[in-house]
Amino acid sequence: MRGHSFEARAKADGGTELVRLLHERLRDGTPAPGPGSVDVPDLTASGPEGRTARTALALREATAAGRWALLDHPLLALPVSGTPAFLEPDAVVVHPDGSWTVVEIKSFPVIDGAADPGKVGAAARQAAVYVLALEELAARTAGGDAGGGVGSGDDGDSGHGRDGGDSGGGARVRHEILLVCPKDFANVPVAELVDVRKPRATTRRQLARLARVEDIAAALPAGTTFDLRLADDGRTATRPAEELAAAVEAVDAAYAPECLAACELAFHCRARARAEGAVAALGRGLRGELGGLTTVESVLAAALDGTAGGAVGGGPASPGASADAAPDPTVVALRRAAALRSEALALAPFPAPAPAPALAGTEAACR
Amino acid sequence: MSLIATLARMEAVRDGRARPLTTVRHRHLAERPLVFVPLTTAGEAGAPLGALVGTERERPRLLAVPQPRDRDLRSAFLAELAEEMLPYIEGFAEDVTAEERKETDPETGKKVTVEVELCAGAPQLLVPSAAGVAYVRLLGRSMRFRRTAEQDPETPHPAPPRVPLLGRWLTHFGERARVPGSSLLLPVTQLLARHWATGQSTLEDQHLGALLAWTDPPAGLTGAEAALRAELARDAAGQLLHPPAGPATDPAFDNKLLAPATARFDAGLPGAEQEIRELLESQLRPTWEAVWRGVDLLRALPEGERVGERWKRDRWSYTAHRDRVRAGEPPQPRRDDAVTAARKLAARETAQAQLDAQEALDDPLVMAGRRLAGEAFAGEVTDVVMEYTEAKVPRPRPLVTLRTDDSPFLADGVKVHRALPGGKSQSAEFAGHVPGDPGALTVRLTGGMGRGKVPEPGSVPEKGDRVCWTLFEHAPRGGPELPDPDRTPWTHGGPPGEPAAELPDPVTSEDLL
Ligand code: SF4
Predict the structure, then answer these.
(1) Which residues on chain B are in Cβ contact (under 8 Å) with A3?
(2) Which of A79, A267, B198, B460 is spaced 20 to 30 A from A69 at the CA atom?
(3) Where is this region: Disordered (chain B) (predicted)?
């Protein structure tokens, strides 16, 4: 559909248009790229390893060439939990000074100069991962055969430096990515530089914290596999669904509602989290609010037990009526919340739509 | 989320259905709202595909764009939309009441009282979800700068006559929707989620079908079961039983049903347009019903006491825009100047503070949240001692002691407020805790007792009364006045100068809207 056609449109005329948009945004006083001044290296190769190697080579050559180059759908590898993950940005531009810019092309519109902040944030997070992968690559290929022009007149408003200190001695990855979107209601591309230092730092921290795949695998029952046992057509899974589900069950999951927008296993993990009564299934924030209470049942038990006890004691300050010796502050707050809630519901000018049997009793006890 | 709302969600999980978050309805619901359920084209961010629109539940009007890439078909859609919406929107313009308002006389600079018109009612537009509100804004933005053939005979693709006017109104609705507590344009998901807590997360609550499933589960199913069905269940042909509330469509619908029908339409096959209309209706109708079902549920709640006061502000807002249109003012600019933007922000902040206060005063369950947060306290009066100021004409300053289970954040002299019957409020100052009696505290009344030496009857609480004091004001006002636009400081770009006439958007061969 037009999502693709917009990307094709933005990359039209051999990438000159895209590089022109980027140059225009940089406002660094360098001459604008003219026709024929943008190289578009061929990146085809077989297999992901072949394609990443081809991308790395093309990047190195383009950096050394001291010209503009557009890498269309390069393939990058980023180690995640000790295993390479392959990433495919929409494009990477190599500047004549040897620096690299990630280009992200999206189909959501920029209207009167403003776009949906949620979508821009998501694009920035996505591009930050590409920036990290490129930084890895730059550090690895740091052979000193490139980057002669680093720091020439282009540190105007993009204000980059060798941030992170890990870009090695060669190429430099800019921390501002180019976001390209349709302008207003037309299919005309408009571009904006987006600083991704924050999402980059977040992702870097998260990647560093991830457990290594080998360690996770070591904790699983021997022989656990997610193999679908594809038939010869390479598409039909022959493995029984229950068997596969059991294998998935064996791995711990930290489900939160955010998973729904991001992970294909979300409905599976949600069902499991709900079956366990996990409070995190109701929202990531709740975990912090509820301290050590991690299940719905334990929260309700703590809260409602207190309403009965608290009413006898006459106040929140005396939940000592229950068995607890030193009341946990979360539990005290929960009991107070439950008492206030049932008191207010009892005052309601109409019967609450769905009177809950368990609460009805405590309302009477409260006031 | 307050701990009380969190508990409500847990109760919902336990009971298998939504639990109340409020005891009254906190938003105005019109007797005759205009419901608008739009659909857009996949991959064409914003291109309209179809809509159901109307004020009558049994007879929605179906609008369809059989080929969204065709500018003329999109234009026809917008023309029909204007035909359906404008008579409703304009239908409230004539019935007016007289109101007095203080204005600054431009010649003398003095405040004078003038009589102005206030529309007795106002239109209310309901859409399924927040994405629908965003789409109303987008439609407004896309339509308001268009030119009709009458305005500009040279314009390449003239807009149908009333389309730019609808654009201005939809822009107004979209702007108003950003004011907390306003009710001119409301998403039903937000309305339901304000009043009930489901046993799922706020993210999942954005799905109208799932939200309704929890709020009003069908017999024999729990909210969770019904919500799962609303999210995932498909028929034998792979189509969702509950199509998404839009404006985005389900990819399976786009690929399997719509795309072939569109291809038949493009090939000029007879009956293809009718087929597309039926397909769109099949996607729109369930959402249309869901919106009205939501309206039913909300109507069953009694309206909060101060809801009418906020609706009156919406009526002011409607009246003011009516006047701007009548005065021939140009459409709202693409970007606000610095002073207008600052003014809008300040107005929204004030509206938020007022909404927070009013919801708490109207609803013991909302007040419970403020009490839990230490921002209010309630209890029984245990003692009242009359005292007076030492001025020449002594004024009553009675000391009221009450016992409360709440733990308000009070320091000496902190102002507290209490609602009096008739909508007024009474102020007092915290005078101290009672030594040796935990939970007992004293406040000194400072107002709300009338002008005389003796407090008006009923204005001082008596022993045994239950009272509720808040640490927040009941009618918070906005911050300092902002300068006139022609005195905008240079830090904010300086005076905006004469507003340049906004040009229509350029026409390109691949426009979406
Ligand atoms: S849904 Fe996906 S991301 Fe979330 S816990 Fe499950 S596997 Fe992990």
Answers:
(1) 43
(2) A79
(3) 474-513
pLDDT in tens, A273-294: 999 999 999 998 887 888 888 8
Q: Distance from A48 to chain B by nearest Cα, in Å?
A: 28
Chain-centre distance of CA B147, in angstroms?
30
**A47 and A162 together in one domain:** yes
Least confident window among A130-144, A259-273, A348-362, B355-369: A348-362
Both A196 and A73 in one domain: the answer is yes
Top residue of A341, A343, A345, A347 to mutate, by most chain B CBs within 10 Å, is: A341
- Contact assessment for residue B9 and residue A337, using Cβ atoms and an 8 Å cutoff: no
Q: Which residue has the tokens 């939160």?
A: A256
Name the residue range of residue A312's domain: 253-366
Residue A363 pLDDT greater than 90, yes or no: no
- Confidence at residue A143, expressed as pLDDT on a 0 to 100 scale: 53
B50-76 tens-digit pLDDT = 999 999 999 999 999 999 989 999 999
* Residues in Cβ contact with A346 at an 8 Å cutoff, skipping those fewer than 6 apart: A363, A366, A367
Q: How far apart are CA A302 and CA B288, in angstroms?
A: 42
Domains and CATH numbers, chain B: 3-334 (no CATH), 374-470 (2.40.30)
Neighbours of B101 (CB within 10 A): 11
Chain A closest-CA separation from residue B224 CA (Å): 9
The pLDDT assigned to A350 comes to: 56
**B438/A296 Cβ within 8 A:** no
Does A111 map to a domain? yes
Asked if residue A86 is part of any domain, the answer here is: yes
ipTM: 0.87
Helical ranges in A166-229 per DSSP H: 197-209, 213-218
What are the CA-CA distances from residue B458 to residues B361, B403, B450, B451, B461 (Å)? 19, 20, 11, 14, 7
- pLDDT of B335 reads 87
